[in-house]
Amino acid sequence: MSDQPIIVSASPHVHSDRTSRKLMFDVVLALMPALLVSLYVFGYSAVITTVAAVVSCLVFEYLIQRYILKTPVTIGDGSALITGLLLAFNLPAGLPVWMVIAGSLVAIGIAKLSFGGLGFNVFNPALVGRVFLLVSFPVQMTRWPTAVENNTRLVDAVTGATPLGMIKEGVQFGETMSQISTRLPSHTDMLLGLTAGSLGEMSALALILGGIYLIARKVISWHIPVTVLATIALMTGLFWWADPEQFANPLLHVLSGGAILGAFYMATDLVTSPVTRKGMVVFAIGVGVITVVIRLFGSYPEGISFAILIMNAFVPLINRYFKPKRFGARIKAKMV
Amino acid sequence: MGSIPSHTDVFVHSGVVSRVEGHSVTVTLDQNVHCESCRAKGACGVSDGAAKQIQIDDPTKTYTRDQPVRVVLKKGLGHKAVAWAYVFPFLLMTGTLILGSALFEEWLAGVLSLAVLVPYFTGVYALKGYFRKTFKASLQSL
Amino acid sequence: MKPKRRASTLANMVLVLLAITLAAGVTLGFVNQWTLEPKAAAQRARKLEALSSVLPEFNNQPVDQVVRLAVGRDSIEYYPAYMDDTFVGAAVTGYSEKGYSGNVRIMVGFEPDGTILNIAVLEQKETPGLGTKMKGESFIRQFRGQNPSGFDLRVEKDGGEVDALAGATISSRAFCEAALMAYEAYVDQQNAQPDK
Amino acid sequence: MTDSILNSIILLGALGVIAALVLYVVSKKFHVYEDPLIAEVEELLPAANCAGCGFPGCRAFAEKLVATEDISELFCPVGGNEVMKLVSETLGKAVAEKDPTVAVIRCQGSCEVRPKTSEYQGPKSCAISDLIYSGETDCQYGCLGDGDCVAACSFDAMYMDEATGLPVVITDKCTSCGMCVDACPRNIIEMRPKKKRDLKIFVGCLNEEKGGLAKKACSVACIGCSKCLDVCPKDAIVIENNLAYIDPAYCTLCRKCVPVCPTGSIIETNFPPRKEKVAEPTKAESDA
Amino acid sequence: MLKTFPKGGIHPPENKITSGRPIRRLPAPKVVYVPIAQHIGIPAEIIVDRKDKVTVGQVIARSGGFVSSNIHSPVAGTVTKLDMVVDTRGYKKQCIVIRTDPKDPANEDLPEEMLKTEIAMAPEEIRQRISDFGIVGLGGATFPSHVKLSVKEDQIDCLVVNGVECEPYLTADHRLMLEKSQQILVGIRILMRALGVTRAIIGIENNKCDAIDLFRKEVAGNDGIQIAALQVKYPQGGEKQLIRALLGREVPKNGLPMDVGVVVHNVGTVYAVYQAVQHNRPLTERVVTVTGKSLQDPSNFWVRIGTPISDLLEAVGGVPENTRKIVSGGPMMGKALKSTDVPVTKGTSGILVIPEGEASRGEPRNCIRCGECVNVCPMGLEPHLLMNLTEKGMYEKAAQEDILTCIECGSCSYVCPSHRPLLDYIRFGKSISRQLATKTAQQ
Amino acid sequence: MEYWTILIGAVFVNNIVLSQFLGICPFLGVSGKVSTSLGMSGAVLFVMTIATTVTYLLHEYVLVPAGLDYLRTITFILVIAALVQMVEIVLKKVSPPLYQALGVFLPLITTNCAVLGVAILALGLENASLLKAVFFAVSSSAGFALALVVFASIREYLELADLPEGMKGVPINLLVAGLLSLAFLGFAGLV
Amino acid sequence: MAQALKQNFLKGIIKENPVFVMLLGMCPTLGVTSSAFNGLGMGVATLFVLLMSNIVVSLIRSQIPAKVRIPAFIVIIASFVTVVEMVLEAYIPFLYEQLGIFIPLIVVNCLILGRAEAFAAKNTLLDSAVDALGMGVGFVIALTALGATREILGNGSLFDLRFVSEDASTFILFILPPGAFIALAYLAYLFNRFTQKSA
Ligand SMILES: Cc1cc2nc3c(=O)[nH]c(=O)nc-3n(C[C@H](O)[C@H](O)[C@H](O)COP(=O)(O)O)c2cc1C
Ligand SMILES: Cc1cc2nc3c(=O)[nH]c(=O)nc-3n(C[C@H](O)[C@H](O)[C@H](O)COP(=O)(O)O)c2cc1C
Ligand SMILES: Cc1cc2nc3c(=O)[nH]c(=O)nc-3n(C[C@H](O)[C@H](O)[C@H](O)COP(=O)(O)O)c2cc1C
Ligand SMILES: Cc1cc2nc3c(=O)[nH]c(=O)nc-3n(C[C@H](O)[C@H](O)[C@H](O)CO)c2cc1C
Ligand code: SF4
Ligand code: SF4
Ligand code: SF4
Ligand code: SF4
Ligand code: FES
Q: With a CB-CB cutoff of 8 Å, which residues 2-21 of chain F face chain B?
């Protein structure tokens, strides 16, 4: 026998080789294609924003855990890294660095560690950070650098409107969809990511690629992303069918804005989404409906961040009412 | 193994026996059971009826005055009680108001919608037997 | 130690409560009487303050010479100002229902030729930090000394010359609409009473 | 003008009268009787709500005190005799005086004297590891060292000694509420009378195995050799299942048993240091 | 599609390295330590004394009640002591120590008996025999088998024989089925007669194709005995899951198999029944798999009850240097041992030796609410919630969340990516909840 | 449409708890149990409706004609306090078992500032009418209920979290309310 | 005696701070504190009503039959609130507009703050005045602190004194509703940490 004392523990004595760290790094991997597209599209400013967000998230997690909460430091588990990445993905490239840092502080300090750290937060940290910045700095947060032409410049890229922004503004001016659509980028551009928008929401294609990887690796299940996108498509489709001059077509709604980023990477955050499949579907329908309501009738052109946060609040309620079916809960078993 | 007597499908409220008449026990409820998380519980409440009293019949055991007890109520009954006490009269009131507004002047409609509560509660009074049977709470001594 | 308390008999209860409510009634009645004047004065003072901030020096009582004009769903006010009986300008209110949240009401001071002297915001419920910046010097500054006859009182986005507040185009648009309303009313008023 | 004042008086006066009438009716129908004594007694209690008295909280205990005739069985360990005396005065009922007690840890199995023979991996909780197995050492009676007792103490009267891996009671802070006694799955903690200057003598071991086995598992284990029993002048010691127990009711703190224990299993607290070797009997007696 | 239960379950690496190893016999050990509490229920009462001579199969401790069982001497020899011996948890428990008499021929292995297919006994006699001959469930729970047979007429319509052996590593049942298939079939008929049923199903996981084929061949469609191949999925062998998989019936919450007209017996139990009824042999030995990737010679053994586990490990070439954990039972449900001085009991199905690298548990981290534990729980529970509730002392709430229906399969702890010790807490929560429940029941 | 605006406004956009700050004490104070908060919501619904009806009538048909606007606060609070008591008395008289069930189930309904606040706000609605005032009260209580139930469920959930020392209790409750309110900003502009 | 009074006064500020500890009067606390001045104004108005009504109740307490204590107390508080309302409208109209609906709500607030007084009404004039003063000052401090925090973060100013340029980006969120909750959450957190340490 080994000279070290024998180990005693309760069963089971074997364990699957999945760990939460591996899960997290799978997500990071899945985000890479989209990040590469963004680096190509926005150039240096994307690098700066991403690095600022990631580094500051990690640093804040370290500082707060070490010096304020005095709990073990967990920056190695990869969750703060994801929060940083996703926060950056939700910001316009080239946002002033101090704002990025403030957003990270809010995400990590307020939304995550105030609740006790990984696993206890009710709201999606990256989104809390993002929405905090959006509400506080609406001007800077809606200054979108246009794609590609400016990717080698360091500062002050020319800014353009996002497709959803153009629609919202157009509708406010009383324009019809056919007038607006002349200004809109093509669907292919949106698929590839050659439009204005947040750093990471650019390329639907790259995001879907990563999403499929996550589903294949069983990091996330298909229920949330598919339901969210289907709900968005269905609802916007209904409105579009009723009045195509007033409302944009469903394909545009699915491809534009943060719909895909949100559906695959943010609504699926394990911590802040329901546990059971049924619950996930309910949650995802909620996200989809609120997103569409905000996009079509609210004052923000894009609503998925808010929608996810609002539904985050409903998760405890959903978990409460959509429990797995207990074995043997059926009153009388049927005789065969 | 058998089924476990589930002690969790109920509401429990502690109180003190304040009067005993035969099998009818009057219990004064401690007010703060549901406010346990409220820091201001000591200072809370505007109405003077801070200590609620309820009457319970329990022929099985005897109780003495000032005995601390727990009142136990089946969980589903709480919502049912809320429906009878608040939600139904509310629906009646708003219904009357909407109808009344269409037919009469505003003030009359308003007064009517308040007045309709009188027959409602009279009706509830008439259903005494039903309520007695439905809302049975029981006592546990501590 | 404990003071003896009045027993809770019906008579006692009614009497004491009656006494207290009566006392309250008297007090409040009197305080109301007493503050009626100051309340009115305060309102007047606020108006005067707004007036003097947007008008050149005057020595008449514009508040007493106010002209009410019905415009749209609401009415606006026209306050002429005189210095020793010479017309030195007028303050005209304007409003817009297109604010981000609720109405925007402003008071525009015009020189006799219609040049804007100054603008004061009377009422707005815009979002703090966004729409509320319409009260700020840097926004108002661009209107001073402009004559709307040669200055397109619309935000740049709509083809006008007003530099909108960043992130608050809606508020800026409402502000401009109110200013334009005031200007048009002023012009109408001048046309109706050409002597002034 | 004065109309307004008059109106306000009339309106408010009417409201006042109505309110008074309503309240009068209410007071007739809603008479609430609560014994004011309950509140008074509750004031006296320490408000620790520790349940050491056997009731859910101080309020419940107060209700019980007021309700029961004979309260000599009831005792608030936190408040101790002082509070009970006040309660007795308030209620005019007799209370029993109890010796103040304090928690003691009846295990000395530090890492040094009780070698680890296995390594436990699982939740740091005595209750859970007790459920899983007999502990990291070969003693199935001793302290598991995961600190459930420390966690249970709501008065910060306990801490885990890093060096020994055993819990320590801070006697001055201990209110003798007994929560730790309940928390320990191995029943290691005992409430012993505090006596004067907190002098205590007790056997710091619970191992019921035969001497050799016990000694093998832990070098300071009680081996049930009866030497202490033989020297005890007051017959305060009983030996059962290879284990000695000193009954505080009879022990006069003479300390005779302490030096004779071959394993050093008997613990004495707060005594002045012993003179070299055998202490003079007179000295020992004066200590008592 | 192979049958299986619908919700939950996992598929850990099977590692059935001993499935090709025929069952060997170990010579009778020099000393046996026979604990008196080897079954669920009341411990047996010792009826021998020091220095008594006993022989193989002699009752040495008598059943202490209805839910209890006789214990028979596994060897011929002399009772040396009534002493204590450590159980799998490391606590000392009463046992009878018997020194084997090396000269007594009874201690030599008996010759293989001829297969005896005729069943002479009436149902009542069978039940009595099973009770007298100390037969308890060998599937793990060691529940006295006669209790399960004491059913009302027509209450049961199907006997399920559990040949699933879903635990990784273990092959005792598998080997038994291969080597004693005919005896098992006779045993099944005995039990069918005792229960008065005409239908029996043997459930076997599809990773034991040889056993399935063998049974299929031998049954040849008569007797109402069916063979069902099952998908390989842990914990298929749990009786509730097995019944669901085979018959589509769901044992009600807090209910028993008999509530849905089923009795489940392990194949080992069935074989023991055969031995008792047909050959008058009480339960004194069983098959134990001694296994582990680091062992020189992992094997299956016929082992006499009371044999120290250290002897077994000796027989496979000793414990390797790098061993850090020794488990009695399989890796999913077995108990880690503190020492090898523990005797084999009726419930010991295997000994698993785990080397250095695989012995340590991962550091637990915060739950990330991934829901994996919920997905794999075959009982439809929410293990992460149950653990949290227990951790925070909210036992009533845990009881409300059906903590007591957990079958302790450990699937949740197995999958948790955060290495949460879910089952550790759930077990603790169950014990407290049970205490609370009995307390309220008393009120 | 006007009614639709009132409803969406009171429930989502200007939720009376999350953005108007009325009834915060019960919101933060009442225990975090979902079933209790559902019951509370029902009670508040009734109390707010009846209180608004009475105060609206009192204001429009007594105070204003008599020129006693300035007695609004004092009369309203008296009337509301009396009403709450009356409801209790009536319930107790009419059906003791019902009253008893409520007593066990619900915390005492106290007059909180939400009732007074809604009664006063209802007077200031555009083109106010009794119907509209009552509808506003109903919408407000729906908003109150929504916030209360969601909040209660989150608090039940947070009982299981390892909150940092010092965040427990008041701070975390406020923080959750804040983040909830932040999320609800997304509804801005719906009306 | 003086010591006891001091204690009585201080407990309202720290140990029983109505906002941070007792969680009372949250509506005005959150609703009107978008600037330090508003917070101060609301705090002072509340302090005044609380002090005055406590004094009056304490003076006439022996005359009030037990059963009408509450209505009597309501009437007295509501009267003072109405006075404050009218005076503010007349003399500080700007503040009157800012505080809006929360002025009448002082009634509810003071009713709760002063409940101990109403219920027991057992204290002498001096005691109850000091008690009210302590509570009131605790309330003023909390409201002003919250208002100041929100104004500084959200508007870059304190009591309307700007220290960043008008066009600078500030954390607007803090003068919006969510900011009220969040700022108070962290003030309460700091308060907790601070008092726990000193305890
Ligand atoms: C919570 C919130 C508050 C807002 N407040 C205002 C406001 O007060 N004034 C305004 O013009 N726009 C406000 N907006 C922004 C408008 O919805 C709209 O996006 C903006 O006016 C577009 O103007 P821009 O082109 O200048 O960015 C607000 C938006 C939100 C979400
Ligand atoms: C108190 C008790 C009574 C039982 N009664 C019966 C019974 O009447 N019939 C039966 O088939 N099994 C009965 N069982 C046995 C269980 O169904 C089950 O086989 C046993 O607990 C072992 O199952 P396991 O190995 O899946 O854990 C009983 C078990 C217990 C604990
Ligand atoms: C998680 C779990 C897994 C089990 N796996 C098996 C198994 O693989 N084979 C088996 O015979 N019994 C297994 N059992 C035990 C059965 O549930 C049941 O107790 C047994 O088949 C009854 O037969 P017995 O009384 O003859 O032992 C398992 C029990 C549990 C709880
Ligand atoms: C599939 C997946 C999605 C995630 N999405 C997010 C996210 O949207 N925002 C975020 O802050 N963290 C995200 N994380 C990381 C982590 O779960 C998050 O930081 C926790 O919410 C912190 O408690 C994600 C992790 C995984 C595995
Ligand atoms: S040490 Fe034990 S008895 Fe003493 S106060 Fe702590 S828990 Fe209570
Ligand atoms: S004394 Fe008991 S509870 Fe305390 S650490 Fe030791 S075993 Fe655990
Ligand atoms: S909770 Fe119990 S039944 Fe469910 S997976 Fe875990 S151990 Fe198995
Ligand atoms: S598997 Fe682990 S991390 Fe996932 S929900 Fe369950 S306990 Fe949490
Ligand atoms: S101040 Fe307490 S509810 Fe508003």
A: none
Contact criterion met (CB below 8 Å) for D77 and D146: no
Cβ(F12)–Cβ(F142) under 8 Å?
A: no
**Are B65 and B89 within one domain?**
no
Please tell me which chains touch G, using 3 or more CB pairs under 8 Å as the contact test.
Answer: A, B, C, D, F
For the residues of C22-77, what is the DSSP string, one character each?
HHHHHHHHHHHHHHHHHHHHHHHHHHHHHHHHHS----S-GGGG-EEEEETTEEEE
Please count the CA atoms within 13 angstroms of the CA of C19 that sit on its side-chain side. 10
Number of domains chain G is built from: 1
Supply D107's token pair: 């295990």
pLDDT at residue A335, rounded to an integer = 40
CA angle, D227 as apex, D222 and D228 as ends, to 5°?
A: 75
Which residue from F97, F93, F114 is spatially nearest to F43, judged by alpha carbons? F114
Q: Can you name the residues that pair with G18 across neighbouring β-strands?
A: none
Q: Does the beta carbon of D153 sit less than 6 angstroms from any atom of ligand 6?
A: no
Do F104 and F188 fall into the same domain?
Answer: no
Residue of F nearest to B127 (CA): F95
Q: For G96-144, how does the pLDDT look when each residue is reduced to its tens digit (9 = 90+)? A: 888 888 888 887 776 666 655 544 455 677 777 787 788 888 888 888 9
Count of other CB atoms within 10 angstroms of residue E131: 21
- Which residues span the domain enclosing B28? 3-75+136-141
In which region does residue C84 sit, left (phi positive, over 0), alpha (psi from -120 to 50) or beta (all else)? left
Q: Could you tell me the residue range of the domain that residue D55 belongs to? A: 36-91
Please state the pTM of the whole predicted model: 0.88
Cβ(E399)–Cβ(E440) under 8 Å? Answer: no
* Contact exists between B and G (3 or more beta carbon pairs < 8 Å): yes
Within this chain, do residues D124 and D261 fall inside the same structural domain, yes or no? yes
Any C CB within 8 A of G34 CB: yes
Give yes or no: residues B28 and B90 share one domain.
no
Nearest to C143 by CA among C172, C170, C122: C172
Place of tokens 């996002």: A162
- The phi, psi pair for E3, rounded to 5°, reads -75, 150
Q: How far is the CA of A8 from the centre of ligand 1 (A)?
A: 63
Q: Considering only the beta carbons, identify the residue of D121, D133, D209 that sits closest to E338.
A: D133
Note whether E413 and B24 are within 8 A (CB): no
d(CA E258, CA E261): 5
Are chains G and D in contact at 3+ CB pairs closer than 8 Å?
yes
Give one DSSP letter per residue of D13-62, joined into a string: HHHHHHHHHHHHHHHHHT-----HHHHHHHHHS------TTSSSSHHHHH
CATH superfamily of E123-279: NADH-ubiquinone oxidoreductase 51kDa subunit (3.40.50.11540)
Nearest residue of F to residue A299 by CA position?
Answer: F189
Pairing outcome for strands E350-355 and G157-158: unpaired
pLDDT at F15 > cutoff 80 = yes
Cα of D167 vs centre of ligand 6, distance in Å, is: 7
C137 touches chain G (CB under 8 A): yes
DSSP-based three-state secondary structure for D116 = strand
Number of Cβ within 10 Å of residue C57's Cβ equals: 9
Query: CB within 8 A of A61, min separation 6: which ones?
Result: A73, A74, A75, A80, A108, A112, A113
Domain extent listing, chain E: 123-279, 372-442
CATH number for the domain harbouring residue B68: 2.40.50
F105 CA: distance to closest CA in chain B (Å): 5
In the sheet with E71-72, reading across from the earlier edge strand, the strands are: E45-46, E59-62, E71-72
State how many domains chain C has.
Answer: 1
Quote the domain boundaries for residue C161: 52-192
Quick: pLDDT tens for C21-66: 888 887 888 888 787 788 788 788 888 888 888 888 878 887 777 8
Q: Is the dihedral of CA C142, C148, C150, C155 positive or negative?
A: positive
Report yes or no on D45 lying in a domain.
Answer: yes
